[in-house]
Design brief:
There is one protein chain. 21% of the residues lie in helices and 38% in strands. By secondary structure, it is α+β, with helices and mostly antiparallel strands. The strands form two sheets. It has a three-stranded antiparallel beta sheet, with no helix packed on it. Strands 4-3-6 form a three-stranded antiparallel beta sheet, with no helix packed on it.
Length: 148
Amino acid sequence: MKLGTLLLGIIAFFAIRYALREGVRSVVTSATTDHAAKCLVMLGHTTSFQDGSTFIVGSFKNNCDRRFSHVTVAFMLDRSSGTSVTQMWSPLRSSTAPNRAPQTALDLPAAPIFAYSRDIQPGETRKFKSAMPISENSTFRFDRISGY
């Protein structure tokens, strides 16, 4: 009788362990993929001049039936040749006569700009402000909203 009870206990232990592992895995997968972000909707964004700096501001809405602990709104800042960054002459770059005039403009990749928000309830509309200021004449585009 004791051997049967022990065997039944071991089988029950492994069954409960398997059920918990699969349950936790599905919750973690849904919370860490962009699948959950499909119901986070951008309502609008613009720039705002505050305290001598320009920030990206706007609002988004949680159309999900669950709460998000953290939401990240991502923008891509265009840093192409239209900006004032230019490639200058460097004495280490060549042995020819110095030409200190700016040469061709640098073609830099887009830079990410983020805004963060915490504890967003289902159905809630939340305002955001970028974490870092941008140049007044910068061009940027909305990239995505991620939440977990």
